[in-house]
Hints:
five-stranded mixed beta sheet; about 375 residues; four-stranded mixed beta sheet; globular; alpha+beta
Amino acid sequence: VVRHESLDDDAAAIARAFRRAADDADLVIASGGLGPTLDDVTREALAEAMGVPLEEDAGARQHLEAWAAARGRKLGPSNYRQVQFPRGAETLDNPVGTAPGIAAAIGRARVFCIPGVPGEMRQMLADQVLPRLAGARSGQAALVRTVRTFGMPESVLGEKIADLMAAGRRPRVATAVRSGIIDVHVHASGPREEVMRLLEADAAEIRRRLGPVVFGEGDEEMEAAVARLLERRPVTLAVAESCTGGLVAAKLVSVPGMSAWLLEAVVAYSNESKVRRLGVPETLIARHGAVSEPVARAMAEGARGTSGADIAIALTGIAGPAGGTPEKPVGTVWFALAHAGGAEAAQYVFLGDRQHVRERAANFALDMLRRHLVRAATGRSP
Amino acid sequence: VVRHESLDDDAAAIARAFRRAADDADLVIASGGLGPTLDDVTREALAEAMGVPLEEDAGARQHLEAWAAARGRKLGPSNYRQVQFPRGAETLDNPVGTAPGIAAAIGRARVFCIPGVPGEMRQMLADQVLPRLAGARSGQAALVRTVRTFGMPESVLGEKIADLMAAGRRPRVATAVRSGIIDVHVHASGPREEVMRLLEADAAEIRRRLGPVVFGEGDEEMEAAVARLLERRPVTLAVAESCTGGLVAAKLVSVPGMSAWLLEAVVAYSNESKVRRLGVPETLIARHGAVSEPVARAMAEGARGTSGADIAIALTGIAGPAGGTPEKPVGTVWFALAHAGGAEAAQYVFLGDRQHVRERAANFALDMLRRHLVRAATGRSP
């Protein structure tokens, strides 16, 4: 990628950007500006950059009208803006929305326009754009391989792979952090076979050095790593959450097929709900507070008992901004995991705002579950 | 904003980008590349662009060592890269991480460097950068006002405000879509007082024309709109979810103070859990299927009954990729809301992949709740 630009909804400026991009690159991908409203001007800009007029595409018009009829929707004049295309351009079907994409050429550069709505953008890129690129510059590739980790500070991790991260080395190795997850990216370009060999060797070396904090590769989320372990060795799960308010369950359920393992989740947000739904003794909450090791353990054991699941994870914490005390500052979260052989608990104090605390706490809970599943499968502590 | 660039971790390329940006803009904000690892080269790039050497900052070193000591963390050599700054630059405290920010100048342009970790970036921008910009170009402003809507197709919405969206009009009005939410952005720049007047008039006109589909302004999420209604007229809530797997609850809990209203949420992912936790009759599931109006209603009524909440919302659907049938395709979701006066139900078929279906379904459920609360408060149907 030689350039990434974010542009205003200004047709003349976008046309200039198209021409500049076509001068500097073999491939130009534009997302957004294909909708029905008047600020959607990518069609006009592309036509201007190509030096051709816009024309209605009869096939796209038919497709749009059939789509609307099937859903009982009425089309207004603005919808018909979406079936105008630069002369000579190819239309790309959009299976998940009303805006077709466009494939065209400016000089020697290939140009693809796809919608900006994130769900549509992703699907159009995968279904329409990438397949058309297969075979381009055949034999050459610029690839990235990503090793995902959780639970090791970035500075410690960086020192373990400092030699791989040295400036000028090939492949290039770099780290990126989000919600407590540290990704190690390995980049290289050149002949495809050689690049794949280089990336494979680096990824294996990174996994070896970082060991148990590695939970996956690519864009695999922690919950997918959990699902992979569950597929190999099925057990049933229950979740009891407080400050994360359903986030742990939502992450698990984002994996297709989770219904085979996850029996239920309870967001026991009030103390009353912790008592009534999960059987946490009131005296425990009174004595230790809702954010405490005994209450986290009782929540996990309660969730396991009432659901009949093999394993239950529970967490209770103070996401903020209010509710912190000197002994239990905002960001304090207690975690527990109950299984047939007993229960374990852990505590962590997360920095950052409410959303950051919740997001990291949810990942911490999933990682606790992941490590338990690895341990159960291998007998070794990850 | 005259340019937004995404750059590689290449110090020379970043230094060139700093100089180009300083030529074209009065203000340059760079995020990322301030971490402890060797691919973090923003410090080096900025020093090169400024034409000065890097020097250790004694105050930042002390701050880092105190931070590590308080948390019982050991510092390695790579941590000390984070206390190197271009000579003459100002360091900006980072309250949520180890990487301080940098304030500097290249020629006449002011330059701020802040971390790339999203939570740190947001907090540093708000706490360190924006306050330093107050008063710059005093009296002038480039402002955006955003009216947020849910539930009206973009083409219909666009036609209702087509005259406001006409090319060349001031303020500029544009729409953007995500997860079923359509934002109408109103932009203008010029003398601050005038701009604020223009945006206020347009926002009021847009709210008037779009009416009940408007749920908020700015970056307010649907759940914050719900919380605003609950503050004015408190009722207690319960949630019963299936395919969204905790997402509705997680969105609600993302609002500070939600514990005053939300009693609990149940992710009744298995049929067994729907029966046992929510009291949905097994015969109902057998006769109509888990994704059906009667089951959605029974889930809402069950959640309301067992939690003791005033209002319960429930949803049950097929998020995909598997599980669809010709009568109930992937994306089919049934929603129900139970209250003291009875229950209501709605069905929608969402397009897109699993995450898209879940995200839009969660927003649909929150919007159903929002509309109910508006109706209860005003006696009018929004």
